[in-house]
Amino acid sequence: MTRVSVNTSGSANLLSLRTRWSRLARAGAGTGATTVRLLASYTIDPLVPYLGVRLHDAGVPSALSVGPYHQILQQCLDDTSETGRMRPAVLVVAARFEDFADDGDGRDLVHIADAALAAAARWRSCLLFVLPAVPEQRPYGVGDGCHSAGTVAAAGAVRERLRSMLSGRPNVLLADAEEAVRAVGARNTHRPAMYRFARVPYTEAVFDHLGEQLAGLLRLRNGAGRRAVVVDTTSVGAEGLAELRHPLEALRRRGMRLALGSAGPAAELGRMLADAAPELLADPRVALIADTAPLSEQLAVAGARFAVPADVTVVLTAAPAPAGTGAAEVVVLGEEPAGWESHLAAAGLLDALPVPDGSVRSSEEQPGAVEEPVPGGRSDGSLAEFIAGLGVTATFHEVARDLDEQTAELVARAHDFTLGESRAVHASGPGFAVAASVRDRLGDYGVSAVAAVHLVGGVARVDVFSVSCPALGREVEDRVLREIVARADRDGCHTVLIEYEETGRNQVAVDFLRAVAERTWTAPSGREMRMVIERTETGR
């Protein structure tokens, strides 16, 4: 099927891509051999349709999954985490400056890059690291560019430190969120309301451009597609061929097979090349196909000459509706030759990866690297050291047993750590409910955990136990359980009973509960508290 390269940033095209991904997913796409795991400091789920469709079209069938947001370090430092157990073929890591408090020197982002590098090496994964975009906020306003410590300067220094640290490594690729922001335009980039509600910082158009970048990088890494280029010189003409001279030379140097097709006589094609691109005429590796009227025959001749099938061949043409291209990809160059090189760049034909230098570098070897890393932030530290270095505090306060609006919203949104989706809350009779406000050196997460318990015959039966994603992996769940034990002990209970359902998304909670069932719990009074964990069927 002919695929015409177009700009997909319009809202109708974005909806079309999302709809297409839904159809592909129902048909079994997204279950390929290449496992792609996405970790971000924000909700990156909107990226999946755009990345999934483009990987499918590039011939890279992949299984995409998203890890809990703002859990990059925890997932990368712990080989027993959900991501660690998965051992993904491709690990995508994306973090924003804005998601880390007081990160002007970029040390948290450097630690994330270090941990991701180490995890990718242990898991034998390809690391695809997304350089963070420059923050939108400018404390100095129009004068930001005049300050050496302004937002643009500080962010630029961190971005280049990360690029220097990661570039040139084997099995490491770099994408750039700033490129996606520039392509869309700063005014059309951010979604403040969606970020407050669901931690989705970007518009669909930004995720679309980012998906295009990631898919293009993985396509290049896998060597998928685009092995030959056929130029329809009849529609391009001498002026257009002169404009294409340098990009065609670049493609030729990279090993792309090149054919120049013309529906006119061979002598006419020769004269055109002699005037517009004599080096192509002199190169015996360039196939000249003349006196062949239909474009389909030109493609057939090029395929036979190069032993390259049509579905990995790109046709460059200025004809608005070329016919006879079959399975080949088509790049319609437009009416103005001066813009054709930009068309080729937008179509990804000029994309190329550097040759890895094979060196092994750490952040300390980069100019301006962090000299005094925060405890636990380094990838060679343990998860326990990282958590200890965060300085986590959890402040508990009582809430209504039937849950107020804020805590009810937290429970509704806590998909990764929850007891299930159909748990009943027993708001009458003896019992208690508590919420925890959490903060650490990276930020203040507000109310991040809630538990509701009813008491029956000396047993504290837990109705609600939910922790929001940003607080996960910081031992907040342990603190909530200790708070439940302490309050149950105060009320004279001897047993804590937690029943849970497996929802398909709450594996983090399931693993935690199975682990705590094997521990001995001592209440503040000094007596032993029995911990009973039971699995129930969904809907009971």
Regions with little confidence, pLDDT below 50 for 5+ residues = 1-8, 358-380
The first-to-last residue Cα distance is: 50 Å
> How much helix is in the residues?
25-40%
Question: Quick one: biggest sheet?
Answer: 7 strands, mixed
Radius of gyration: 28 Å
Q: What class do helices, strands and sheet pairing give?
A: alpha/beta
Strand order of the largest sheet: 12-13-14-15-16-18-17
Keywords:
single chain; 540 residues; alpha/beta; seven-stranded mixed β-sheet
Explain briefly what this protein structure is:
The chain contains 19 helices and 18 strands. The chain is an alpha/beta fold and 540 residues long. Helix 2 packs parallel to helix 9, helix 7 (177-184) packs across helix 9 and helix 10 runs parallel beside helix 12 (266-276).
Could you explain how this protein is built, in words?
Strand 13 (431-440) and strand 14 form a beta hairpin. Helices cover 37% and strands 20% of the residues. The chain has helices spanning 11-26, 47-57, 72-77, 82-86, 107-123, 151-166, 177-184, 192-198, 204-222, 233-243, 245-253, 266-276, 278-282, 295-306, 340-346, 383-390, 405-413, 476-490, 507-516, and strands at 3-4, 34-40, 62-66, 90-94, 126-131, 172-176, 228-232, 257-261, 287-289, 313-317, 329-332, 393-398, 431-440, 443-456, 459-467, 495-500, 521-522, 528-535. It starts with a strand and ends in a 5-residue tail after the last strand. It is built from 19 helices and 18 strands. Helix 2 (47-57) runs parallel beside helix 9. The strands form 3 sheets. The chain has a 7-stranded mixed sheet with strand order 12-13-14-15-16-18-17, sandwiched between helices. It has a 6-stranded parallel sheet with strand order 1-11-10-7-8-9, with helices on both faces. The chain is of the alpha/beta class and 540 residues long.
